[in-house]
């Protein structure tokens, strides 16, 4: 369905019941209360943000994942039911930088809660870096230094919405940020004396590569994994890999590995996984990043 039409329907479905509440209800808040009144009701848009929110909020918040487990967030859009769920939440945690292309439409449906853009402070920090402005690459969470800022933004938003638990949120965030700092140091140390060029599947690791002085080449040129690999791009990747003596071609958990295998065969190399951590499989953000590190070490060191 055309997105505009879809959202027109959603707007009608949501705004009409809301106006009825305004007219007939004395306390419209009662309509939005779920099970536990004392807890912040939080919806996070996709997997890593869900985990970050859980780490910060723990037992003081109810965190729900918006994009269902197993579904890739890039091309996802909310159903009417999802929008109704979002209407009941106090906060919606998003990545920002255009990753949630449905968010503008949600704002039009009279959402009464807070939309938390976790990219705040990351883009500002990089303003002037042409690459970020031109590509609009949304994959900030794959750089653990940026992930720390995302976690802090979540803690600040929880603190603003629920000031009596401010200390709790800030302490949880500080502890988790410490783990992310450790992860960052580990990646920095373990990749420092290695080769720099790697072939990722889609254009997801540019912030990661910038942070750790690596050069990302990609099979899919787009920063959406559903982009097409053309014969020309395959040819380019193969010749780059041969020229740079690359022996590992990366794939992802949720894509067909065939394209990566074709390239790997051509260069007499092998396929390993470099996860963009967009879809929950198992483990945690930190364990997935550590697996990525181990596979990168196998490719580069
Ligand atoms: Zn992606």
TrEMBL record:
**GO molecular function list:** metal ion binding
Record-linked Gene3D superfamilies? Nitrogenase molybdenum iron protein domain
Task: Give the family from UniProt.
Answer: Belongs to the bacterial solute-binding protein 9 family.
GO term, biological process aspect, one: cell adhesion
Residue stretches spanning the membrane? 7-25
Protein name listed in UniProt: Zinc ABC transporter substrate-binding protein
Q: Which domain of life is it from?
A: Archaea
Q: Which InterPro entries match?
A: AdhesinB, Bact_metal-bind_prot9, Lipoprotein_PsaA-like, ZnuA-like
């Amino acid at each position: 369905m055309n997105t505009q039409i879809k959202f027109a329907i959603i707007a009608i479905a949501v705004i009409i019941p809301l106006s009825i509440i305004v007219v007939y209800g004395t306390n419209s808040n009662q309509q939005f209360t779920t099970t536990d009144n004392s807890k912040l009701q939080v919806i996070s848009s996709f997997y890593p943000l869900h985990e970050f929110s859980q780490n910060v909020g723990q037992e003081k918040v109810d965190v729900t994942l918006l994009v269902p487990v197993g579904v890739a967030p890039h091309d996802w859009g909310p159903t009417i039911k999802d929008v109704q769920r979002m209407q009941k939440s106090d906060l919606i945690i998003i990545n920002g930088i255009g990753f949630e292309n449905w968010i503008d439409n949600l704002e039009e449906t009279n959402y009464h809660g807070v939309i938390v853009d976790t990219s705040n402070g990351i883009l500002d920090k990089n303003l002037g870096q042409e690459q970020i402005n031109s590509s609009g690459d949304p994959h900030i969470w794959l750089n653990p230094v940026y992930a720390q800022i995302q976690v802090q933004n979540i803690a600040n938003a929880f603190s603003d919405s629920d000031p009596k638990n401010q200390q709790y949120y800030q302490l949880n965030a500080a502890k988790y940020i410490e783990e992310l700092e450790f992860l960052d140091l580990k990646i920095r140390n373990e990749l420092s004396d290695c080769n720099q060029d790697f072939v990722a599947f889609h254009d997801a690791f540019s912030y990661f590569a910038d942070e750790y002085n690596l050069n990302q080449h990609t099979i899919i040129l787009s920063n959406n994994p559903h982009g097409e690999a053309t014969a020309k791009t395959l040819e380019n990747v193969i010749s780059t890999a041969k020229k740079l003596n690359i022996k590992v071609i990366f794939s992802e958990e949720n894509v067909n590995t065939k394209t990566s295998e074709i390239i790997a065969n051509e260069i007499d190399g092998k396929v390993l996984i470099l996860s963009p951590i967009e879809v929950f499989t198992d483990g945690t953000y930190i364990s997935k990043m550590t697996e990525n590190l181990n596979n990168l070490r196998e490719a580069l060191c």
